[in-house]
């Protein structure tokens, strides 16, 4: 099992949800976060500036999804498709993939793949 954490731009959430529904994703958790990536949260890079930019925290949406291994690629592709903007747009987001040891559905006590 894998645990996918994606940081996307808030205005892309509806698109991403639609793409995930198309592939039949069974569950997800969404939260509002703030952060910055390699560009320090700046929407453009002023190459004439030589001094260091101060990092700027931007609003992002964090999506978390636990999936069976065989759904990893489809799910990542759905997130990419839903959050894609103009090619190379800074701050389009990032997807992290973690190994997931177990999942337990409290209601039924199912675990592992059966709990997803
Ligand atoms: N190394 C990191 N560790 C944790 N979160 C990160 C990391 N890099 C990016 N993020 C999160 O992902 C969001 C989107 O990153 P983004 O700005 O698109 O990255 P980049 O500037 O590297 O293209 C950031 O606002 C931040 O919340």
Automatic annotation (TrEMBL):
Organism: Methanosarcina spelaei
Database matches in Gene3D superfamilies: 3.30.70.120
Protein name (Swiss-Prot/TrEMBL): Transcriptional regulator
InterPro entries: N-reg_PII (IPR002187), N-reg_PII-like_a/b (IPR011322), N-reg_PII/ATP_PRibTrfase_C (IPR015867)
Example GO biological process: regulation of nitrogen utilization
One annotated Gene Ontology cellular component of this protein: cytosol
Molecular function terms, GO-annotated: ATP binding; enzyme regulator activity
Pfam families (UniProt xref): P-II
């Amino acid at each position: 099992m894998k645990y996918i954490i994606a940081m996307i731009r808030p205005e892309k959430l509806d698109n991403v949800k639609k793409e995930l529904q198309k592939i039949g994703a069974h569950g997800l958790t969404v939260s509002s976060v703030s952060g910055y990536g390699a560009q320090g949260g700046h929407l453009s890079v002023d190459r004439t500036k030589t001094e260091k930019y101060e990092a700027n925290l931007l609003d992002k949406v964090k999506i978390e999804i636990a999936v069976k291994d065989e759904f990893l690629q489809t799910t990542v592709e759905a997130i990419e498709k839903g959050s894609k903007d103009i090619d190379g747009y800074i701050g389009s987001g990032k997807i992290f993939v973690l190994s997931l040891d177990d999942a337990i559905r409290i209601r039924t006590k199912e675990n592992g793949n059966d709990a997803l």
